[in-house]
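Progress report, Aim 2. The chain analyzed during this reporting quarter is listed below.
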Amino acid sequence: MQQARLHIYNKTITTFSSSALAGLSTVKAGCTTSVWRSSAEHVKIVEVNIFEALISLVASHNCVVCDVEGSLLCPGCLNSELTEVGGRCYRCHKASRNQAVCKDCRKSVPIRHSWIATDYGEVPKKLVHKLKFERAIAGAVPIAEKIDEIVPNLPKDTIVCHIPTASSRVRMRGYDQANEIAKHFSGLRGYKQRSLLLRKGKLRQVGASRTDRFKHLERAFRVKDLDLKQTKILLIDDITTTGATIEAAAKMLKKAGVKTIDVAVFAQA
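Predicted structure tokens for the chain:
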């Protein structure tokens, strides 16, 4: 399918069934309209405020710690301001080598390792907030770089897969922050990135207990109709709290025939 897309971060999508509009691209006062035709000749019109789009694309960012211009977390603060988690099981926090899931927890989950870059302290909170709620998509870059620091070398045929965000949040932001992190990380490593999971429903997990999270997430994910037998997957996400989300995603992938599942997360709350 040939598509002409405007890469934007604040968008409203309306779908039309008129093939007469196919190929149209116009500029209106205050917004840009980019149109393309799908295989079903549906035309999707993406409208975006020109001012906000330009700001997202060309404006420089200041470090959330030292305020130096250039990036949301400068290299110096990236190395000095994030608290290392150390070797522990993400689930029970028992000490473990190479952040492996401990033997007791492995009985319940199909995850081998869960590499967590930092605890969810003041600086990670600021950075993630910029990425998720202030449309600062550039925040995905230092997050991916920090994850790259803690994840050991993996087999070259490892597939990087993000844990999809609730669809309502993606529509609001114009992008999926976990996908952006996964994209940058896979670029740093040279691994293949694939979108393997679909998220069903719109329920957010913020503030829910571990029990409630597991209940909500039992049927939250669906694996795309792909042949995943004997594949090696690295799941990527921005934040984990109880681990319920990554476990729900991992269990669905395991049912689909995935051989090994590891997880890399920027911060644990």
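The radius of gyration is 20 Å. The chain has a mean pLDDT of 81. These observations will guide the mutagenesis work planned for the next reporting period.
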